[in-house]
Amino acid sequence: MTDSYDEALLERRRRLLGASYRLFYTEPFHPVRGDGVWLFDRHGTAHLDAYNNVACVGHCHPRVVAAIAHQAATLNTHTRYLHETILDCAERIIDTLPAPLEQMVFTCSGSEANDLALRMARAFTGSEGVIVTELAYHGVTQAIAEASPSLGSRVKLGDAVRTVPAPVDHGDGAAAMGERFAAGVQAAINDLAADGIRPAAMLLDSVFSSDGIVTDPVGFLGPAVDTIRRAGGLYIADEVQAGLGRTGVMWGFPRHGVSADLVTLGKPLGNGHPVAGVVARRDVMDHFGDVARYFNTFGGNPVACAAALAVQDVIAEENIVEKAAKVGHYLHERLAELAQASGRLGDIRGAGLLAGVEVLDDNGQSDATAAQALVDALRQRRVLISATGPGGNVLKIRPPLVFRRDHVDRLGEALGECLAQHGSLP
Ligand code: PMP
Questions:
Q1: Rounded to the nearest 5°, which phi and psi values hold at 36?
Q2: Mean pLDDT in order along the chain per 10 residues (426 residues)
Q3: What is the CA radius of gyration of the chain?
Q4: How many angstroms does the Cα of residue 239 sit away from the middle of ligand 1?
Q5: Domain check: are 31 and 84 in the same one?
Q6: What was the pLDDT predicted at 118?
Q7: 280 and 359 co-located in one domain
Q8: Is residue 208 in contact with ligand 1, taking CB distance under 6 Å?
Q9: Which of 278, 295, 317 is the last residue of a domain?
């Protein structure tokens, strides 16, 4: 139960932060300390974090904390001076990405990265049109909010933005799924053309997170990427959610056997420290450099880069991606067992340590209210997840990548208990 201390915080929050912020959970959570996959409240009670993808190598990883502290105590400036750490960081990240991605610019957030990628694509193609999925979320700037339909119908889409239905797996294979998705992209291109607009870019979250999580069967992205390129547009892979091992491989888009013209990175890059960026083809960067100059006061500062570099070190040294693949496999098995046993869980999507689980009512229909009730019931059992998809009908499980099998067991046990009491779910 929320006590009087937290009630007072809630009141201050409403008074000071205003109306646009939302809190998770009917009973808000107030963590004061993090360690690995655990978040601790004021009373020292541990909560299993099965949601925070930002702290990808675990909350407060000592190696990352030490790198930040050391660099902060030494120098923190910006990218207008020479500095090895900035270059080491860019090099390490570029090295993990497939050709033709060769050069990197730094931002502070995924939103800024997408905003910049869009400017680069528009400058390179000389076109304006942008294609996103129907429930896409790409960030907060004006241009990007106008390409983020998941913000709701009261946030107007841009005049040059068109939406396509997210890919849907009908069980007929990646090729058929890809053709259906590409047909949507072609329809959007035609619709733009009818208004005299040529496409600059197709901007896709590589795991379609806000559309309800769609990762498989692998290979379904190919036809859509071909379609946008045939029309003269670029493919921007938004890896803010998918990147850095989330699906059990380093990046989301190469799983589908496609190349990207630009990639945007964020969230897990600094394990919580704000560092993000765009990696692009050299010719796209060259063109942007010809028409514009780029400087971002905080983007890519030495402390941010020290954090990102330490994250790369930890990922390599602790075999984080391989482990995420293995534990992720176990997580998906466990969820399938729970679905079988309960009858209240439908489609289970995702890969690695990313899972989207559709919640059903007694008649087998998608049930967003029950999904919210399950999220709250798990929070009462000190397990943290959230919900996504249309109306929030899909449980979203996305823990730090240092999640282990025993953590999956704890999550599975709690979810099993909540489902067993499904009579009390709405
Ligand atoms: N793209 C995707 C796919 C995201 O999920 C998010 C954040 N949820 C963003 C972009 C924006 O990132 P940021 O909040 O760092 O601006």
A1: 65, -120
A2: 91 94 95 98 97 98 98 97 98 98 98 98 98 98 97 95 98 98 98 98 98 97 98 98 98 98 98 98 98 97 98 98 98 97 94 97 92 97 93 95 98 96 63
A3: 21
A4: 9
A5: no
A6: 98
A7: no
A8: no
A9: 317
Q: 249 CA to middle of ligand 1, Å?
A: 20
Q: Whose CA is nearest to atom 2 of ligand 1?
A: 138
Query: Best mutation site among 138, 207, 265 for ligand 1, i.e. most ligand atoms within 8 A of its Cβ?
Result: 138
Checking DSSP bridges between strand 31-35 and strand 38-41, what pairing results, if any?
Answer: antiparallel
Peptide bond into 100 cis (omega under 30): yes
Residue 138: the pLDDT is 98
CATH number of domain containing 376: 3.90.1150.10
Decide: 288 and 360 in contact? Cβ < 8 Å: no
**356 and 295 fall within a common domain:** no
Distance 268 CA to ligand 1 centre (A): 11
205 lines ligand 1 (CB under 6 A): yes
Question: Which residue in 134, 51, 26, 50 sits closest to 390, CA to CA?
Answer: 134
297 in the same domain as 345:
no
Give the domain extent around 399.
Answer: 4-57+319-424
Is 239 a pocket residue for ligand 1 (Cβ < 6 Å)? Answer: no
Q: Which of 248, 213, 189, 203 is nearest to 386 (CA)?
A: 213
Same domain, yes or no: 240 and 252: yes
For position 424, what pLDDT does the model report?
56
